[in-house]
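Deliverable D2.4 — example input (structure tokens):
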């Protein structure tokens, strides 16, 4: 989109969870000539939004979000940031159009899994008449590319950990459990669950400190989008906090997928990785699911 071209496709809303990603997207939208509406989710810690049109809504208040879309003439929406608690059925405030989707919603909530819930949220937002777009459509410069970000690259031991970690992360994703896996010495030592990447890395650091993981072998964190994941929501993000926690866990580096992972604070991330002697690497992955879909 060219600067000043907002009227051609309608105003953008950023539904902001926790973390800094929503702020990066808002800044990118501003650079593109847009004036995004920020809808900060209640209960999620976000940055200061000075200078932006800001509203608040609970994660399940679709009736309230629909009213905001109407009042601010929103036609596009991007989901960004972390959500610590998914909406429970009794917390959802429906619209009339929402009621037609009740069987789908109940099935989704019973099925569980973050990807299933995100699919439900995307479908419900689009039922409100808005087009849901991905973070990478607003800020394509955040996407990881193939190759190392800084000066460090994996050695042969790390290459084996990367191979094992990729296999584990893909299997974990197929089960709609998480996106991250840690491999040390050619074996998987941790898988990401609902607690998130940082908590998983804390577990690895604790296992390292207690001697349950060898101090001689470093290991690798692999973060991948789930094979069935809708790329409009929850692409894996690697930032300074991820790097810091991976360093505290004694890991040699972090791997994300080229074109399907986000790198936050790229220049600062590169500096920090170089200083820590760690690699941050984008890899291209052959996905059988994508080939079957075509």
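Example output (designed residues):
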């Amino acid at each position: 989109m060219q600067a000043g071209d907002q009227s051609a496709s309608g105003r953008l809303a950023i539904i902001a969870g926790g973390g800094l990603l929503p702020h990066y997207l808002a800044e990118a939208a501003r650079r593109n000539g847009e004036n995004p509406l920020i809808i900060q989710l209640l209960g999620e810690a976000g940055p200061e939004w000075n200078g932006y049109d800001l509203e608040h809504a609970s994660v399940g208040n679709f009736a309230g979000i629909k009213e905001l879309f109407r009042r601010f003439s929103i036609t596009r929406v991007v989901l960004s940031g972390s959500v610590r608690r998914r909406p429970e059925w009794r917390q959802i405030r429906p619209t009339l159009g929402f009621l037609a989707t009740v069987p789908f919603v109940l099935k989704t909530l019973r099925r569980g899994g973050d990807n299933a819930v995100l699919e439900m949220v995307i479908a419900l937002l689009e039922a409100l008449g808005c087009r849901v777009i991905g973070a990478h459509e607003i800020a394509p410069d955040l996407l990881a590319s193939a190759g190392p970000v800084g000066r460090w690259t994996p050695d042969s031991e790390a290459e084996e950990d990367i191979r094992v970690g990729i296999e584990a992360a893909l299997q974990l994703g197929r089960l709609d459990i998480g996106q991250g896996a840690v491999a040390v010495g050619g074996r998987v030592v941790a898988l990401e669950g609902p607690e998130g990447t940082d908590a998983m890395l804390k577990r690895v650091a604790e296992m390292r400190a207690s001697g349950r993981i060898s101090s001689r072998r470093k290991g690798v964190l692999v973060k991948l989008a789930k094979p069935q994941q809708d790329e409009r929501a929850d692409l894996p993000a690697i930032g300074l906090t991820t790097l810091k926690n991976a360093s505290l866990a004694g890991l040699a580096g972090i791997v994300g997928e080229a074109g399907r992972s986000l790198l936050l604070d790229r220049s600062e991330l590169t500096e920090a990785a170089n200083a820590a002697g760690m690699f941050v690497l984008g890899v291209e992955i052959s996905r059988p699911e994508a080939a079957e879909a075509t």
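Confidence is low (pLDDT under 50) at residues 1-8.
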